[in-house]
Amino acid sequence: MYAIAVVRYRQPIERVVEMTDAHRAYLRELEAKGILLASGPMDPRFGGLLLLRLPEGDVLTQLEQIRDGDPFVKHQIAQYELLPWVPGIGKERLDRL
Fold first, then answer.
1. Using 50, 70 and 90 to split pLDDT, how confident is the model at 47?
2. In angstroms, rounded to a whole number, what is the distance separating the alpha carbons of residues 39 and 11?
3. Which string of DSSP letters, residue by residue, matches 42-81?
């Protein structure tokens, strides 16, 4: 199962910048576990997107745990919109990543 997380900043960009290193360290942990496929800020920078691959199981619980582990959420810097996703076209390419 795949998912997209839309991360929207809720604090001034200065606060976002202060927490960015911690946020990225958390994302690198998710990448090392094979959960995070890609991430990056939006342009203009008002938030970011995460492309996630989740193991079988309770997808919503997994997504909530991912969200709640992010320092941006812990410090009320940003909020997540969690979107489980079933790709049709291109799924085989994603599966090879």
1. very high
2. 20
3. -SSSSEEEEEEE--SS-HHHHHHHHHHH-HHHHTTSEEEE
What φ, ψ does residue 75 adopt, rounded to 5°?
A: -105, 15
The count of structural domains within the chain is 1
Coil, strand, or helix at residue 37? strand
**Bridge partners, 78 (sequence order):** 9
Asked whether the CA dihedral 43, 86, 52, 71 is positive or negative, the reply is: positive
Domain of residue 19: give its range.
2-87
Taking residues 54-62, what's their average pLDDT?
Answer: 93
> What is the domain-level CATH number for residue 47?
3.30.70.1060
